[in-house]
């Protein structure tokens, strides 16, 4: 476990971190780190928990994070990350928590997230996502034998930027988008 949260660290993540291949829990939350999210996270294949927000990261979410097959928790709230959610995230079949809230991610929620039947908390509020929550993800929320209890998206805007067409799919709707939250 390496918890460097809340230390006012600035700049880039030190490259030496990626040599610690046995690392299972890495927390860089609540710092002042900036720049793109390093693709080298993909080398930490034993990671079970990765927290990289809040910070000031920008750029896109590296698809290499979708190769972290042991990942149980990925928290990246409150950054300046844009682009789409990588479809490779559908391979994270042990993931229970996915927090991409308060970022500039856009596009649609990938249907591949419906492959992750272990999900219990998905936080996608205050983003630029649009379209509908995929039926595959709603199926997890609707199945009482599965554990997805929290699914938050921006579906309360008028007009909504994202819809929850399946009844009881979304547990909470925010009414703020990333573009208005950053002003």
Features:
single chain; mainly beta; globular; 16 strands; disordered C terminus; 183 residues
Note the beta-strand portion.
25-35%
The CATH topology comes to Leucine-rich repeat, LRR (right-handed beta-alpha superhelix)
Average predicted local confidence, pLDDT: 91
Shape estimate? globular
- Rounded to the nearest angstrom, the radius of gyration is 16 Å
**Helix and strand sequence:** EEEEEEEEEEEEEHEEEH
- Class per helix and strand makeup: mainly beta
Give the strand order, joined by hyphens, for the main sheet.
1-3-5-7-9-11-14-16
Number of helices: 2
Regions with pLDDT < 50 over 5+ consecutive residues? 179-183
Distance between the termini: 36 Å
User: How many β-strand runs?
Assistant: 16
CATH superfamily: Ribonuclease Inhibitor
What does this structure look like?
- The protein has a single domain (2-181), classed as Ribonuclease Inhibitor (Leucine-rich repeat, LRR (right-handed beta-alpha superhelix)), CATH 3.80.10.
- It is built from two helices and 16 strands.
- It has helices at residues 135-142, 178-181, and strands at residues 2-3, 10-11, 25-27, 32-36, 49-51, 56-60, 73-75, 80-83, 97-99, 104-107, 121-123, 128-129, 131-132, 150-153, 162-163, 172-173.
- The longest helix has 8 residues, at 135-142.
């Amino acid at each position: 476990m390496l918890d460097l949260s809340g230390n006012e660290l600035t700049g880039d993540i030190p490259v030496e971190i990626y040599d610690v291949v046995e690392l299972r829990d890495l927390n860089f939350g609540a710092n002042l780190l900036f720049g793109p999210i390093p693709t080298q996270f993909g080398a930490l294949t034993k990671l079970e928990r990765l927290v990289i927000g809040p910070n000031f990261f920008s750029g896109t979410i590296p698809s290499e994070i979708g190769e972290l097959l042991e990942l149980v928790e990925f928290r990246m709230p409150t950054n300046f990350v844009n682009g789409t959610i990588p479809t490779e995230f559908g391979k994270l079949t042990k993931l229970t928590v996915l927090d991409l809230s308060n970022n500039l991610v856009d596009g649609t929620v990938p249907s591949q997230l419906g492959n992750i039947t272990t999900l219990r908390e998905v936080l996608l509020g205050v983003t630029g996502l649009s379209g509908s929550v995929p039926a595959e993800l709603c199926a997890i929320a609707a199945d009482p034998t599965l554990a997805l209890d929290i699914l938050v998206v921006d579906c309360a805007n008028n007009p909504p930027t994202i819809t929850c067409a399946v009844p009881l799919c979304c547990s909470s709707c925010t009414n703020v988008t990333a573009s208005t939250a950053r002003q």
